[in-house]
């Protein structure tokens, strides 16, 4: 066992999200609606990581994430890892990356934006370093903490 393997029972079937930036796990629970999950969700916050210093980590029993859910997580936990667990074994491991586009992933923060008035699906253009999302309708640009909060 290396230092990154924490003392938690691995799940039997489901998803492990690892190497999440500290402070993102609880937001991911909200984004994925896991407060209402029927199966166990185990979360480690601010745990030690060899590569990151500190990280959040979560085990989600009985759930495979949709592409849209992975894209939403990619907006706040780029470079995290996702492990698909089947019968207690890692079936697939992949890096979480920033989505190519953010249509429907973020709510526009501009109350006068047509996407809020007519409840249209949002469309955002993303730019990196630092991450910024620009609404294609009202041209409002949001970044950092605002993106964190605006993920729907
Ligand atoms: Zn807008």
TrEMBL record:
Segments forming domain Aspartate carbamoyltransferase regulatory subunit N-terminal: 8-96
Annotated keywords: Metal-binding, Pyrimidine biosynthesis, Zinc
Residues bound to Zn(2+): 108, 113, 135, 138
Cited Gene3D superfamilies: Aspartate carbamoyltransferase regulatory subunit, C-terminal domain, Aspartate carbamoyltransferase regulatory subunit, N-terminal domain
GO molecular function: metal ion binding
Alphabetized Pfam families for the sequence: PyrI (PF01948), PyrI_C (PF02748)
GO biological process: 'de novo' pyrimidine nucleobase biosynthetic process; pyrimidine nucleotide biosynthetic process
Ranges for domain Aspartate carbamoyltransferase regulatory subunit C-terminal: 103-147
Cofactors: Zn(2+)
Family that this chain belongs to: Belongs to the PyrI family.
Function: Involved in allosteric regulation of aspartate carbamoyltransferase.
Protein name (record): Aspartate carbamoyltransferase regulatory chain
Organism: Candidatus Iainarchaeum sp
């Amino acid at each position: 066992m290396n230092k990154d393997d924490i003392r938690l029972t691995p799940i039997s079937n489901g998803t492990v999200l690892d190497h999440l930036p500290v402070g993102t796990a609880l937001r991911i629970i909200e984004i994925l609606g896991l407060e209402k999950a029927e199966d166990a969700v185990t979360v480690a916050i601010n745990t030690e990581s060899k590569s990151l210093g500190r990280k959040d980590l979560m085990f989600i029993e009985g759930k495979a994430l949709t592409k849209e859910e992975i894209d939403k997580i990619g907006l706040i936990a780029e470079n995290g890892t996702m492990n698909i667990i089947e019968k207690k074994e890692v079936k697939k491991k992949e890096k979480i990356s920033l989505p190519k586009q953010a249509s429907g992933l973020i709510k526009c923060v501009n109350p006068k934006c047509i996407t809020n008035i007519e409840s249209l699906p949002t469309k955002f253009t993303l730019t990196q370093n630092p991450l910024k999302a620009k609404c294609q309708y009202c041209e409002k640009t949001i970044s950092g903490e605002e993106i964190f909060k605006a993920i729907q």
